[in-house]
Structure formats: C-alpha cells, structure tokens
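We keep the chain:
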Amino acid sequence: LALARHFRSLWKHATLAKSLRVDQRTGKASAVATKVCRVTKRHYRDILELARHTYNGEDYIHEAFDKWTDSSGKNYFVGIEGEHGEIVACENLAALDQGKTAWMEGLRVHPDYRGKGLASQLEGHLVRYAEGTGKGVEHGGSGGVSKDSLPSVRSPRFQRIRLTTTMRNVASCYLAEKFGLKPVNSWAYHFLDRTGVREALQNFTRIMSKLKQEQQEEQSLEKVAATNDHPALSYSVVEADVTSFGKITQDSTLLLDWKVAEAGPEFERTFVEDRKGGGLRFFVATADVASNLRESPHQLLGYSVGRTRPSISTHEEHQGSSIRCATICMKSTHAAATLKLIQNELKIALEHGANTTMINLNEMATKSVVRLGAFPIKDRDRVVLYEKALGCVENHS
C-alpha cells in the first residue's frame, strides 16, 4: 500500500508539473487551466491581446469577435482560460454552406502558453463536437447562445469539416492531419505592398509586350495553340455577375481571403458579411472565338474574384488602411489571359488605395506566373485546404 501511494504521489506531481508554467511577472510557477470554455462578450480584451501577437498585429479575430459571440447559433467560439480567468487560447467553429460545412478558424495561443498542447486540445474538442462524438460546453454570463441553438446539434449534422492554413505553418498542418483532416486542394499565394504592386504592373507591361511580339511572329495558328494551350489568338476580360459564379465557372467552391465557400445562396454572404468591406467583383477571361459564354462555357480561359476590405490591425498607425484579396483561377495555361486578370486586380488595388494586396493562384495560373517570371513564388507559399468528410447523421439526443 505504501508503494502504491508512493507511485500515485509521483504520478500526481508529474501530472501537475506538466500543467505548470512560469509567470513572467512573478517568476513563479502557476497552474494552467486546461478546461475548454465558451468565449463570451467579457473576453474581448483577451482576444485583442491574442490578436496583438499574430500576423504582426494584423490579425482579424478581434474584428470577428462580435459575430463569433452573437446569438445566431452559427458560431461555436471556445477558449482556454489562464490562471486569472483570461483567455489564453481560442478557436471558432462556424456553420457555412447552409449548415453543411463545419469551418474551423482563428486558432490562437498566447506566446506564454505555447508548447503546452492547448492548440491540440481545442482542435480535438471542435473536431469531436462537429462529428457529434463530443459534447459542447455552455458558458456563464450574457451575450452568448444556449446549447440547444448551437450548429452541431441541428439535424442533419455537418457533412464535412474544413480549415485552411499555409504550408509554412507546420504545426497547424500537423494538427489537421492528427485529427483526420486531409489536404484536398491548395493555392499559391503572394503578398505585395503598394510599391510591389507598382513594380509588378511595370513588369507585367514588359512581359505582355514580349508575349504580343512573340505571338505576332508565329507563323501558324497551330503553333500558337501549342504555345498558349488554347486555339484563340485573342481574348477579352469582362466583369460578370458574381451570383452567376457557379454557372459560368462550373466550379463548386472558391477560396478568397483564407476562407472557402460553396457556390450557392450563401456564396456572396460568406465573404461580404464575414468582415466589413466592399462587395465581391467577378471578372472572366474568355476566348474571342466564343460568341456566347453561357452557350460555350468551355471557352472560358479563367477568372478572378476579389474584394477590398479594411486592414484589421491592432496598431494605431496602421488603422484606416485596406487590403485587396483576389483569387485567380485559370482553366488553361493561356499566359496573356492569366497576366491580364492579375494586372486587373492590381490596378483595382491601387485605385482603392490598398496597402497590401494578396493574390491567390490555382495550379494553372501558378504555372504561367512562374514560367513568365511575373513575380516570385516559393514552393511552400501555398494555402492548403484540409477536409474531413462526415456521415450525415440525424441527431436524436
């Protein structure tokens, strides 16, 4: 019995040691709470503090705070409290695509609490919650929603769990795969400041001029087709109605501003209501041989979708600035059309006075950009979409 008590004592102290951290203010070890709780209106300052330590203070979670803690029942915002009751880690789960998608976003851990498994605990909690194998947590205080109004207890359950991260974020990729999510798609990304946008436009002008000269020097249409992967010598870029996105592009999903949404009734609202900013603008590049885009969707060379929104910053000197987010998806490797769509988005960024422009490119667009040297893209500069398919199970609880 004495030996058993000794081992129990060792286990207790080992377990306690794993939950201790050193308080930077006092230099003393203090216990880290590991119980998942609901984030409520009273935690705003804690979320703002987490935002200060993410993306050099250019985070968005404090701006999304009111939405994530409202009473719509479309968000399940959870966190872990520190020794003084402050939120030291958080993550949100949102119901997208008319309740079909459980979207995980905003995973943050305070620097003083990293390396203690808090991110894994939150991610695991939300995955089990979305699957229906784990219970949600209620919260005290006002401003939240009741357990019965949470998205995962609705019928039918979610059909999939999704999240995006970057290939450079090794820890986030590891967590996604740890809980059964698999990479299903990826897009290259490139950030430009105002100076970078102007330099890129100048470079594009030189490249476009060279492409035009090379095209004029071609001796036959067949040779041009082999070069540009399309039988059209010329093309047009026009603006289209974003509500016709699915019909025109034949694509079911779109990545924009780190979020992926299904084409459908909630398509535009997903991006417009999510954060403050302007509406979406949708441009298509078509071969001039197509007399009617709707009658000949195979003549679509590519498209871009973009919007300008306020740059959400915790730095006072950066407030009032804006960011242009655009995604270019090509259906062919038509180099000139690819550059024209990007060029169009960069010009809009300058017109809107955007301090930062983020360009996402699908595989075909990336190949053209890299081949032409339009701007540098490294292999790890990719946004990755992770997904886990779920059974559509009725809730009888």
Summary: The chain has eleven helices and 16 strands. The chain has a mean pLDDT of 78. The two ends are 44 Å apart (CA to CA).
